[in-house]
Structures are given as C-alpha cells and as structure tokens.
Amino acid sequence: MVILVGVDEAGYGPNLGPLAVAATAWSLPAAEVEQFPGPAFEGILSGCRPAAKASTLWIADSKLVYKSGKGLGLLERAVLPMAAMAHQRAEIVTSWQELLDLLSPGAAGRLAAAPWYSDLASPLPRDAQRAELEELAEQLPRQLQQRDTRIVSLETRLLTVADFNEGIRRYDNKGELLSRTSLELVRSVIDRFPTDPVIVHCDKHGGRNRYADLLQELFPDYLVEIHGESRELSRYRWGPPGCRREIRFAVGGDSFLPTALASMTAKYLRELCMAAFNAYWQRQLPGLQPTAGYPLDARRFMESINELCQQLDIEKDQLWRCR
Q: How many alpha carbons fall within 13 Å on the CB side of residue 236?
C-alpha cells in the first residue's frame, strides 16, 4: 500500500480574507497510484462532472466546481462527506465551528479575534442537502474499501490576514510563506505514516521551481535527493528503503484527484470566511456590494469601509494583506 497525498491552496492572490491550504491523504494499492482514480473507480469518483442524477462524486479543481453566485452545494457534496470519512465520523459536521475544529484545530480561536468571524456556530451545510451528504458518507467508505482504498487524512491550515502579514514580516516573501505553510502541513500528515511509502503531489508555489533547501530543512533526517527541477515539474525523494518519500511540484497539479479535493476543501473554507466577512460589513453599511477580495475590487471595498474602520477602531493589519 502507498500513501498518496495532495496539497493545494485557495486565497493566495487576494488582498482580503484568509489563505487556506489543505492536504488530503489516501491509502491505496501501488498499482493505482499513477492513474488514480482509474477504471476500478468508475461510477464512484470522477474528475469530470457526472450527469445530474448520477451518484458519482465529482472531485476536480475548485475553479471548475465552484462558480461565484452559484452556491456552495457542489463543494459541500465532496468536502463534507470526505471530511467525515477521513476522521472516521459516522455523521457530517453540523456547524462551521465543528468543521474548523475537525480540519484545523486552533483556527477557530484565531478567526474569532476578528468581529466578522463571530458567528462560528452557523450551521452547515449551507446549500447541499444533509440527507444526501450523510448517504454519501455512509456509502463511499464501503465502495472504496471494496477497492482496497481509503481516505486517511484531511487537514488544513487557515492563515488569517493578521497571520499572513506576520508571515510576510518573518520571511519577506509571499511565495516562501506559501511553501512553508504547505510543506509544514505535508510534514504533519506524512509523519503519521512512518512505515509506508508516500507520494505527495503539490501545485507549483507562485512559479517557484526549486524546493530542495526548504525540504531539507523540514525533513532533516535524510538527504533530500533532487530528481529534476523544471518549469513543468520539480521532484524530490528521501527516506529509507521500503518507506521512501517522494514529492512532486507540478504545473496544473490540481487536476490530480487528491490535490483537487484539497483545492475544493481550501476553497470551501475560504468561501465560508468571505461570506461571514461580507455579511458583517454589509450590516455595518447597508447596500455595500460584497467582494471576493481580489486586488482591484478589494481597493473599492476598502475605500467604502475606511471611515467605518476608524469609527470601529479596526486596524488595517486585521483587514489588508501587506503583499
């Protein structure tokens, strides 16, 4: 058996809102690693959108699955059952707080420091039907087990704007912050499987091609071997025979199913945060148009709330990313 890990982020480019990084880990036969999910998973998991009434679970890059204004239902249909399965829960979570505690322990406390994240008890799911999600959470483990496959981990790191700015002050580089956050999450996941071979798939971090020095810093027990560094793919290996670790950074890596689920999970957490953020400011300033937090519209939004921020004594470091 091999542990297959996928890592991705949501919110790297915006000026407003958190950066979310997620990792999923799967245990599966070595023969399935390079084609997962292959023909054996037809009708269960797919990277292509299934027909409306099909029971197949659609897991793809969040940019394909989620469209602004279309609701969170398609993200919830994959993320919430998979979160329950990964953490061996019989039922899906019932609230945002419960989801944070499950996927990113400690994140709820940091979020609650900002007034726009005060209602962490808000119920989930938002748009999907709970009955359908719980049916998926019940059926999928059996279907995967028949193929000797399990999802064994789903974890996240959620950096608030204040966390993000502190990271930039420490590293003075946005790409470095993303790489460290992602690889510290990878270390947290793969340390749980000390006797299993592991393959990790990551999307490229801000165009970065070289990761050997950082990997050696984070995994110091073995020499990190470079097996290619290019614009398309950077690949590294380390560890003893029988439980080698391999990590691949690829352009378009989020098309790979474990990475795609990480993309969807990170996007779901960020969208929950942005919904709460917009709702708070719209209560303060009725008629204010919501924002997704990206640069041009973020400036419009900040100009609209600038006077309110002064009245509410809210520091810019809580709201606006310095990079």
A: 22
